[in-house]
Design brief:
Blueprint: H1 3-15, H2 20-28, E1 43-49, H3 58-76, E2 81-87, H4 92-104, E3 109-112, H5 116-128, E4 133-135, E5 149-151, H6 156-170, E6 176-180, H7 185-201, E7 207-211, H8 217-221, E8 229-233, H9 236-247, E9 253-257, H10 265-271, E10 278-284, H11 295-306, H12 313-326, H13 329-332, H14 338-346, E11 371-377, E12 380-387
Parallel strand pairs: 1-2, 1-3, 3-4, 4-5, 6-7, 6-8, 8-9, 9-10
Antiparallel strand pairs: 10-11, 11-12
């Protein structure tokens, strides 16, 4: 297949929303060695990142400093494992190209520490090629039924149910406005699950749906009245813009959001200061406390190689992601099929630094773990409670 035809195939793939027919065509272009694995002493792990240069961004550095140190150290110990890092340049097209290049390299397993929007295409390609993968993405559509994937994080369905429980507990009689980014598949998915769960628990609940764009944000805010609830399934900068618009209403409004919010530095730089009337509660996958026996290895690596005074969410999940796989490497080398690789990983005894517990994968391949509800106050994110 020449370069022009491959580009055309990829464009057709995106336009038709990953139709099975196109996936089949992609599968036909894969080398036969990518479709089956023979037991061997060596093992090849592919890793997709934004960029391999850890100086390109803070988030890239927080992941790369961990992954590079751990893999280099493992290789220096004489272990027969090949690590192939590829870049996606934070784009969906880049992810597809990265995935295809790993297939050409005959990888046995792929790590995908990417957000759902980027991880989606990679998961589809690797599923078609029968190559197992482990990701940190949360969208329910990342791991297809009977695929060869695992996520070290809970699914957005799990998050939606937790937020619905929180709404029913604290604001059961309030009108709720569900704000969705219609151009984002993950946002649409979690909004749909959340709304369905609310109506299942309370068929008489009053739910108003809003499609978010930065151009219509004032129009959305103008429809929300005193005492009402906003469930906003948006990313960090967008939720900050919505929060700012709602503070200008001078009404008491409650906002609930998923783990995509984060309330990071750019959030507070946009809102300026918190409001006494508009509250924001959101989920997080971590309470920023390193736990378990592996923290003795993790903390020195962060301080020495990451240039950070404190461990971050991205450095913690990167440490767990790579060490989870390496802890089972002797068994993985003996695996005779993609599904046996997944089975070995599901049964791993590795204890995470994020939770101090073993991974507990549900039937769909997502990790069932504690989540935490935070609120913002005085330009800080503050912990409210642990949720299960």
């Amino acid at each position: 297949m020449n370069l022009v035809n491959k580009k055309a195939l990829l464009l057709h793939y995106f336009r038709n929303m990953y139709r099975l027919a196109v996936l089949f065509l992609l599968g036909l272009s894969l080398p036969c060695s990518a479709l089956t694995r023979e037991s061997t002493e060596s093992f090849t792990v592919g890793i997709i990142l934004g960029q391999k240069n850890n100086l390109t961004s803070t988030s890239n550095n927080e992941k790369m400093c961990i992954l590079k140190y751990v893999t280099d150290n493992y290789s220096q110990m004489g272990k027969k494992v090949n690590f192939i890092f590829v870049e996606n340049f934070r784009t969906v097209v880049g992810t597809a190209k990265a995935a295809l290049s790993l297939i050409e390299s005959n990888v046995d397993l792929v790590l995908i520490p990417l957000i759902s929007r980027e991880a989606m295409i990679a998961s589809r390609i690797f599923t078609e090629a029968k190559i197992p993968f482990v990701t940190t993405a949360t969208s329910v559509s990342i791991i297809a039924k009977n695929s060869y994937g695992l996520s070290t994080m809970p699914s957005n369905q799990y998050q939606a149910n937790l937020l619905a429980d929180l709404y029913q507990k604290e604001y059961p009689d309030s009108k709720i406005h569900v704000v969705t980014n219609s151009s984002n598949k993950s946002s649409k998915s979690i909004s749909k699950i959340f709304s369905a769960r609310i109506l299942t628990d309370n068929p008489n609940a009053e739910i108003i749906q809003h499609s978010f764009t930065r151009q219509n944000i004032k129009g959305i805010a103008s429809q929300i009245e005193d005492g009402e609830v906003v469930s906003a399934f948006l990313y960090n900068p967008d939720i900050a813009i919505l929060y700012t618009a709602l503070t200008q209403r001078d009404k008491k409004i409650h906002i609930l959001g998923p783990d995509s919010i984060g309330a990071r530095k750019e959030f507070f730089s946009i809102i300026g200061t918190t409001s006494d009337k508009v509250t924001l509660q959101y989920l997080k996958n971590w309470d920023h406390k390193v736990k378990g026996p592996n923290k003795k290895r993790f903390i020195p690596i962060v301080k020495t190689y990451c240039g950070e005074k404190q461990s971050s969410f991205l450095s913690a999940y990167s440490f767990d992601l790579i060490n989870f796989v390496l802890s089972e490497m002797d068994n993985l080398k003996k695996a005779d099929s993609p599904m046996s690789i997944i089975k070995i990983l599901k049964n791993s005894d590795y204890v995470t630094v994020m939770d101090g517990q073993k991974f507990n994968f549900d039937k769909n391949g997502y990790n069932k773990k504690n989540m935490y509800i935070y609120h913002i106050k005085d330009s800080q994110a503050k912990l409210d409670d642990s949720l299960k």
